[in-house]
Each structure stands twice: as structure tokens, then as C-alpha cells.
Known about the structure:
This protein is an alpha/beta fold.
Amino acid sequence: MKLPARDIATYCAKPDPNRAGVLIYGADAMRVSMRRQSMILALLGPQGSEEMRLTRLSGADLRKDPAALIDAVKAQGFFPGQRVVFLEDAADGLTKTIAAALQDWQQGDAQIIVTAGQLRASSNLRKTFETHPNTYAIAIYDDPPSQAEIAAELQKAGLQNLGDIGLKALSALARELEPGDFRQTLEKLALYKLHDATPLGLEDIQNCAPNSQEAALDDILWVVSEGRAEAIGPLMQRLKSQGMQPVTLCISAVRHFKILFSIASDPAGASAGISKLRPPVFGPRRDRFQRSATRWSLSKSKMALQTLTDLDLQLRSANQHAPALELVERALIRLAMAAQK
């Protein structure tokens, strides 16, 4: 069955040991890995791997030896306690093998935890876990952790005195950093505040946050398509400090506005256009495209692509001597202003 999004963090921290299996899937491999690690640690404890109660298999292993999964599930461990078989990089081609192992699963067998990339609603692997009465299918989207999840992580690391200001600042930081970088920042914060009873503050976070926060290309592209021209300057400075190439930024902008053009040109409307995107778009990213589509009509999208195409030609021209990043910034501000009209 499907596990509701609101219950994912709670379940991964305290999973049901009597489940036959769990499928964790999503486009972001790091977020999927973090949820999987949390679940396995909760099931086996810190000594689970050392006590050989964890068996790791890959999709490639299973394709070579389909019986490896059921053998691992039924195997008897030397140490007592819960056992887990972790299968990574699964795909629809392994559905029959996994379904057979779930069908033969009995109480006392190892729990099967499967991870996969993005799966469509029509995926056979996804349907197998969604329809089985004793399994969960968990979809992981690119959502930053909530304040409650951040507080739980900090308390787990030993940091108890959390202030509202600090938690709000960390929530904002979580939207800018990759999941792995953010988790390292939380661990660094816990060590930084060791034996310090004062509440978590902005200065503490500034001292522990990465010196050059990753300004993903997506950040500035969403700012432009949402018409927030005032936010372009600071983002461009961050991209410049990271050595972003102007042509790379221009190509990414063209790709982004091609998607908006495809949505706007669908005769059945924006929702139908978004549903036809390949690869498919899910979660918060889909919602942002839905909102941006209201600003970018077919004519505006054409104008944006023409502007970016002209900019690309100018950047690649041998006669171009103006500062390239400044040219890109000026073009993006023009597009953001157009989105406001």
C-alpha cells in the first residue's frame, strides 16, 4: 500500500518490523538513500551490519542470480534479531522475482527493503508494493525537511536547546543545500554546540554553514519564470563565485523555457501539458511549473526562447567583448520583468 507523505519521516524513524517489504523510490538518489539508511538503522540497530543481519543485493546481482533474493530472505542468521535484505537499483524488469519473494515471505523471514529511481504510476514494481497487503511503497520527492524533522535530527545528534529563530533559519538553509550537505551541516552544528546550553542562534548557523552555498541552476531559473527580478542579482553573484559559465546558464535557461513553451502550447491546457512532459514531473516541481504556466502564455514563451537564442549566439560570437555574465543577467531580468506583466 502507499504510505502517505505526512507519515514518511515518522515511519522511516520507527518502521514496522512485521512488514514483508518496503519500496522507497524517487528521482533524488541522496534523499532515497537517507530514508533507506534511517529505516535500516531503526530495524537492525547500530550493530546490525556487524552481526551479519543485513544482506545487500544490487539489481545487477539479482539479474544474474534470480534465486539470490529468496535465498537471502529465508536464510537463518548466526545472531538473533531482525534481519533485512536490502536490494538497491531495482527496476521493473525485476518485478516478478521480487513479487515471488514477497509471496513466499513468512513471519521470521528477513524484511525486504528495495530502492529505485523515479517510477511511473504504471510501473509494475510500484504496483506490486502498492497492492500487496503487507508492504509499503514510499515516494520520495524533492521536498526540504520540515522544521519538525530538522528538530528531530538535531535532538538525535544531542542538541536539545533549539530556538524558533534558529529552526526557521535552518529551514531556509535546507531549501538551498543538497540533502547530504545539509545533514553534514546539522552534524557540524551538534558538535559546535556541544556543552553549550544557549539556544541555537543565527550566528551558530552562519559559523557552521558551507562558505559557498550551492546556488543550483534551478534556483535562478525559477526566480526568472516566477517574475522575481529583484532576486536575480544575489543569485548571479553566487553563481559567479562558483565559476558558472555564461553559456551553461544560457543553455539551462533555454531548456527550462522550452518546457514552459511545451506546456503553454498544449491545446488541452497547462495541466495536460505538464502531464505529457517526459521525463515526468512530480511533487513540488510540478506545482511550480503549474504556477509558472499561468505567467507564460504561448507568445511570451516564444519571446523568451527568441531572447535566449539571440543571447546564446551573442555569447558564442567572436566579436563579443562585453562581460558575458552581465549580458546573461540583463537578459534574465528582462524575462523576469516580462513575467510580471
